[in-house]
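Slide 14.
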Amino acid sequence: MPAIGTSAKTLRRGVAAAAALPLLIGALASCGYGSEAKKDGAATASASADTGKKLSASEVRIGYFPNLTHATALVGLQEGLIAKELGSTTIKPQTFNAGPSEIEALNGGSLDIGFIGPSPSINGYVKSKGSNLRIISGSASGGVKLVVNPEKIKTLDDLKGKKIATPQKGNTQDVAFLNWIAEKGWKVDPESGKGDVSVVRTDNKVTPDAFKQGSIDGAWVPEPTASKLVSDGGSVLLDETSLWPDKKFVITNVIVSQKFLKEHPDVVEAVLKGTVKTNEWINANPDKAKASANAKLAADGGKPLDAKVIDPAWQSILVTDDPLAGTLKTESDWAVKAKLIEQPELAGIYDLSLLNKVLKAAGKPEVSDAGLGAK
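Slide 15: predicted structure.
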């Protein structure tokens, strides 16, 4: 299903933690693809942490994707910045390759907090009739591009009649691409992907091979898949940020189980202190943060990204505490227009009270829920 200020600077220059408000979408962006979760070793507070700090839970289970669009999670865990705020509370990290599997873990009680894209956030909230999750913070914006075979496609109009991959039917990138196609006046059946453009739903893990083999002519995908395609001879025809006001849209949120939020608000607040401080550290140390994220990717997946992939990918992603709630609503509206979902009731999907408490204590501007906050 679809994914959908304080300004955020590019990761290359450093990234602001909060921004003034004015999700696109896969195995790398806010949505990865696959269905299995991997449980990692427990992460405890670093030696410099206040290990005597006693919170209401002995452990917190945190999920994320091994994708650059989850940079806050990658760096925050790798550097111990989240663990430090938790004191003696142990982090039990879990990696996921798909939004649905992370939502299932959250709803099933085996996950407490997760980094995830807007589409699965919306879907999980709507399917549970608003009872199972809350979005408690933003995490990242941007990092989605249309990359094409330059020998076959030279202009945007050349996409007509071509095969273009998206990560998954109804995911954030898929919804964005379908909306872009509709605005061109072209017709595509959202269920089959057939029409004036063939929308080929392809796991991000296999998209580079499909591109090299010529079975697709391009892809609307998140990082680092987009930069992998470029390294294989592709050309960036469109950066999705150019389509959004202020060039920002949510790609990764932080969500929490409502049960965990109610029972352990002090733990949730501590995690948010860690994510805010992680974004500050990324801002102050962009090169070190990039290396840290790559080290965590290697630890999670066994292989770091090449410089020719991670360097351009890192530059196109913005980390931000602002959930950019207005853009999530826009992406939801696009999914409705594409007839992928019925009009959802999103009131209450956000609870930014603890985040704004943390931001205020740090002397930072509070962020908006665009009227979609819990009452």
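Speaker note: Confidence is low (pLDDT under 50) at residues 1-36, 44-51.
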